[in-house]
Recover the amino acids of this structure.
């Protein structure tokens, strides 16, 4: 099938979806790179919004609508806000901070580049002739997702709620000021 | 009770006494003396009882096997024959005398309790050796004696001489014990049993032992060490640094007798090898003659007796070399009696005289009057030693010489003629020499006759001069002036004064009293107890063959005449020489008395030993022109006094190589082995420091390294999976 | 659509996040980078789910769970960072060096300057002599030291 697909769908003749995916992907990747390299901490958070939003678009392009909206709601809506609050509570400097990157940035770069090279090489080598068939019924509409969640994944879903509750309690316990600490201070 | 039970009790009682003494000695000082004397006395009585019951008849054998012990079984076995029961009686008698004597001799000694316990243990070990019917059990007693001798010889461990003497005694006897142990194993492997009866049966059977010569020579090494035979005898003269009763015990009845007794027990094993018999004979000859010469040159009275012991043991081994163990054990018995008497008497003399130096004693005018019991009993014992006819030593020595004559003439079957001639000739020569040193000892220890004039007898009184003047002792009165002598004395006398002062300073606890030394009554009483066997044991010569192998032990005419004649010649020559040298001695005042009168005998002996070397420049000899031995021996005197430099030979042969090897091992250990050890440690430390440097605490560094490693692993895995 | 596009994009995003985790100083920026890595995984899951057409939709379900867990993780992580900031006066990861070997930390202190001494002094807690902690943080830089002191005063 893949051979057949390779013959019918040439690598050098991209479809519209592919082009859109590629462009959004470039934007996403660029935003991500800026996120991890910018010297301004708040900007990093904002660039992260762009990256995560770009990813949501990619989900849409992959016909996973529900996940895309969940991505937007949870990540862009709450996680980023949380991060911004965190930055503010830790009195992160607004503006350029020259020491945003630690001393082992070149080691980190080396490791990251090596990992990227290895991963890209492996992935490309493995999926050189694999195509996703996006023409069938949508894989990730809300209805489909709801069915599968509450038909096949109910138990993990409920377990997840317990986990979230535990995380909630844990976060509160961790972040509230302790009386004894206060007295010591 | 059966004879077996009685015989079991004989070694057991002193052993229990020793244990009880060691356990209760400190807490209950009142029990120490009864615990020391009574078990030994009971053992002696029981030994007599056992001897009477056994009566020289058939041997009594009893054995029990507690547990299987592998291929060659070990039994707790008793073997009671005529030899065993008689030697046990001797051991019991001498040990009892020594214990009684020690109560007086060490009356004020703080370590008396442990001393008495070790004497008891020593006695128990010897009785075990005597009664044992199993070689392994015998070896137990043998080794216990070795360690006891170490402790007892080192009783005065405050003095350097005693410390080194105890070590030397232990090491030299152990040098012989190692081949001895191997020999016992070889013997048991050949015979298939450790039981003495079984070994003797195997040795007497048709095919005999597999390696008779090897086994006999290995065993001989141990015997030479224990019985102080040439060339392993050097520990014995030095062991004189121990207390006198211990010397008596070691020399008369226990340790040195063990070797002779062992050979007597296993004589068929030795007789199976002609070479071993010849070696035994040569060893006996060298021991006899050499030790007699050395005895003639000694200045320390106890060393004279020590060399004499070596010589008499040489007689015994000579008797064994000609295959006559009856004569050997007979001499063992008589020698035990008179040598114990001699030692104990010498102890009394040392105490009374305050010195152990013959040179000093010979200048004391009234030694005989102050110790009459010691003088008369020792006179008889010396006559017995010189083998003068009516006394015990004559009979036993003539039995040996007679046996040697038999062997020399080829009348004894299975004994090499060479061994017979060797023993006969050396025995006769030694008879002459023995008489000479016995009479020298007698003449020098305060003999009636020509005395040095009073002014020539110089004594240096120890302690501060005020003490000497305030409480003049008889010796101080005999001196020309109280206190340290003016420059009239020669060099040794001045040294003696210094040495005595040192001794006085070393022992501030010495009780200063003006009374002359009083010998405790019990010490003199013991002398008279031992006097009886020393004088009269010879009358048993007609009875003893029934207890032994049945050979007649009666003196034969030829050897009797020869031996007694030579002894008389020796005595006369010595007396003549002494008359000559005494006149010389008048002009040479010398002699140091270090010990204070009136103190404990043991303490006075310890001081005498400690000051002999500083006073005379030598532990063994003194530069006394009045000594007849100096004239008799001529240029040989110096070498004889040093024991023919055998110690130097041993030192060159063994001590120095061992020390060099030890230094080399130390060097190898310190410089070579330790380098590796330190290197290993240092390398680990360096590596640790390097690794520690990596622990920066920076999580991102750790994570970076971790992920880099993961990438490498992943790439490697992919490459392997792809088959690249 | 060619599967290599989402796969390569996911790989690159993951490595970008990796770089951020290793190179960023601020703990919150590190958390952002972690989010990037998680999202890269999510993209992979979605793409392969679509490609495999799994009847159970396991990929998308897992993506949803991952998003939920990531939300929980960011909550806990921020709480921890806040706590660290409150105790140490800094949320810089490379100054949290209590795990360092003692000698190495001392040896590393001079070139590292304030970074080495600051957390060490502050990390010893209230029992240490009072002069130590503020000195270290003051050396660390004026702005940081100022905030630190203010934080301590506020607490």
């Amino acid at each position: 099938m893949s051979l057949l697909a390779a013959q019918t769908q040439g690598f050098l003749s991209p479809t519209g979806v592919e082009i859109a995916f590629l462009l959004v992907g470039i934007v996403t990747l660029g935003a991500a790179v800026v996120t991890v390299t910018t010297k301004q901490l708040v900007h990093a958070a904002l660039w992260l919004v762009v990256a995560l939003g770009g990813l949501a678009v990619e989900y849409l392009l992959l016909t996973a609508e529900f996940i895309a909206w969940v991505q937007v709601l949870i990540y862009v809506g709450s996680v980023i806000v949380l991060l911004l609050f965190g930055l503010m509570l830790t009195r992160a400097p607004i503006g350029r901070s020259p020491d945003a990157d630690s001393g082992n940035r070149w080691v980190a770069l080396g490791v990251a580049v090596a990992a990227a090279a290895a991963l890209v090489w492996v992935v490309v080598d493995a999926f050189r002739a694999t195509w996703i068939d996006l023409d069938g019924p949508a894989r990730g509409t809300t209805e489909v997702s709801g069915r599968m969640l509450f038909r096949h994944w109910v138990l993990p879903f409920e377990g997840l709620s317990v986990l979230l509750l535990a995380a909630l309690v844990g976060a509160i316990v961790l972040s509230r000021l302790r009386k004894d600490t206060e007295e010591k201070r | 009770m059966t004879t077996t039970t009685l015989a079991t009790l004989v070694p057991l009682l002193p052993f229990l006494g020793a244990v009880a003494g060691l356990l209760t000695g400190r807490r209950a000082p009142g029990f120490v003396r009864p615990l020391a004397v009574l078990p030994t006395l009971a053992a002696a009585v029981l030994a007599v009882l056992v001897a009477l019951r056994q009566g020289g008849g058939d041997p009594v054998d009893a054995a029990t096997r507690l547990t299987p012990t592998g291929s060659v079984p070990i039994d707790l076995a008793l073997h009671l024959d005529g030899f065993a029961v008689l030697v046990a009686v001797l051991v019991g008698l001498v040990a009892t005398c020594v214990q009684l004597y020690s109560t007086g001799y060490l009356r004020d000694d703080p370590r008396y309790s442990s001393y008495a316990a070790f004497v008891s243990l020593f006695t128990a070990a010897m009785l075990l050796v005597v009664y044992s019917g199993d070689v392994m059990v015998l070896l137990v007693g043998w080794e216990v004696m070795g360690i006891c001798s170490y402790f007892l010889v080192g009783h005065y461990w405050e003095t350097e001489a005693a410390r080194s003497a105890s070590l030397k005694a232990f090491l030299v006897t152990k040098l012989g014990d190692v081949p001895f142990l191997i020999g016992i194993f070889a013997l048991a492997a050949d015979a298939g049993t450790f039981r003495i009866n079984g070994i003797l049966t195997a040795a007497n059977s048709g095919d005999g032992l597999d390696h008779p010569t090897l086994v006999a020579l290995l065993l001989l090494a141990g015997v030479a060490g224990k019985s102080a035979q040439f060339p392993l005898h050097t520990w014995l003269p030095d062991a004189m640094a121990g207390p006198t009763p211990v010397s008596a015990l070691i020399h008369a009845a226990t340790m040195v007798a063990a070797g002779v007794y062992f050979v007597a027990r296993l004589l068929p094993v030795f007789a199976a090898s002609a070479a071993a018999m010849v070696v035994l004979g040569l060893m006996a000859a060298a021991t006899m003659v050499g030790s007699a010469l050395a005895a003639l040159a000694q200045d320390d009275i106890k060393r004279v007796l020590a060399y004499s012991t070596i010589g008499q043991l040489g007689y015994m081994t000579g008797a064994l070399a000609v295959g006559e163990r009856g004569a050997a054990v007979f001499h063992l018995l008589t020698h035990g009696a008179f040598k114990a008497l001699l030692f104990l008497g010498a102890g009394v003399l040392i105490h009374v005289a305050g010195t152990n130096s013959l040179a000093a004693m010979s200048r004391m005018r009234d030694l005989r009057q102050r110790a009459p019991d010691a003088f008369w009993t020792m006179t008889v014992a010396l006559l017995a030693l010189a083998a003068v006819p009516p006394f015990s030593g004559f009979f036993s020595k003539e039995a040996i010489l007679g046996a040697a004559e038999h062997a020399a003439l080829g009348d004894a079957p299975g004994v090499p003629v060479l061994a017979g001639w060797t023993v006969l000739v050396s025995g006769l020569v030694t008879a002459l020499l023995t008489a000479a040193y016995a009479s020298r000892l007698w003449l020098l220890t305060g003999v009636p006759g020509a005395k040095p004039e009073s002014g020539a007898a110089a004594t240096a009184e120890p302690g501060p001069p005020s003490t000497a003047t305030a409480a003049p002792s008889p010796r101080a009165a005999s001196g020309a002036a109280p206190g340290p002598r003016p420059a009239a004395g020669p060099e040794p006398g001045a040294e003696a004064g210094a040495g005595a002062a040192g001794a006085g300073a070393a022992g501030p606890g010495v009780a200063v009293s003006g009374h002359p030394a009083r010998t405790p009554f019990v010490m003199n009483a013991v002398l008279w107890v031992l006097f009886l066997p020393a004088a009269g044991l010879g009358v048993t010569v007609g009875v003893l063959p029934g207890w032994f192998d049945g050979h007649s032990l009666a003196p034969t005419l030829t050897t009797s005449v020869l031996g007694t004649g030579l002894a008389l010649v020796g005595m006369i020559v010595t007396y003549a020489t002494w008359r000559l040298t005494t006149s010389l001695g008048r002009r040479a005042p010398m002699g140091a008395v270090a010990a204070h009168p009136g103190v404990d005998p043991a303490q006075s002996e310890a001081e005498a030993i400690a000051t002999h070397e500083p006073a005379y420049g030598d532990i063994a000899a003194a530069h006394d022109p009045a000594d007849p031995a100096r004239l008799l021996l001529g240029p040989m005197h110096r070498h004889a006094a040093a024991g023919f430099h055998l110690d130097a030979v041993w030192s060159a042969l063994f001590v120095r190589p061992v020390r060099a090897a030890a230094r080399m091992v130390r060097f190898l250990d310190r410089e070579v082995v330790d380098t590796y050890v330190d290197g290993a440690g240092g390398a680990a430390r360096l590596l640790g420091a390097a690794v520690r440097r990596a622990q920066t605490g920076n999580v991102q560094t750790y994570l970076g390294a971790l992920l880099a490693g993961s990438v490498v692993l992943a790439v490697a895995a992919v490459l392997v999976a792809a088959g690249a | 659509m060619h599967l290599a596009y989402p796969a390569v994009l996911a790989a690159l995003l993951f490595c970008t996040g990796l770089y951020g985790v290793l190179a960023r100083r601020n703990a919150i920026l590190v958390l952002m980078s972690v989010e990037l890595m998680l999202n890269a995984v999510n993209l992979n899951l979605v793409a392969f789910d679509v490609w495999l057409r799994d009847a159970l939709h396991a990929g998308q379900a897992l993506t949803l769970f991952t998003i939920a867990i990531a939300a929980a993780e960011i909550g806990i992580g921020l709480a921890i960072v806040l706590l660290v900031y409150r105790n140490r006066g800094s949320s810089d990861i490379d100054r949290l060096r209590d795990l360092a070997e003692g000698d190495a930390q001392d040896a590393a202190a001079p070139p590292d300057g304030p970074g080495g001494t600051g957390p060490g002094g502050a990390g010893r807690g209230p029992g240490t002599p009072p002069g130590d902690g503020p000195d270290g943080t003051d050396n660390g830089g004026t702005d940081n030291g100022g905030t630190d002191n203010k934080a301590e005063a506020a607490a």
Notes: The CA atoms of residues 21 and 81 of chain C lie 15 Å apart.
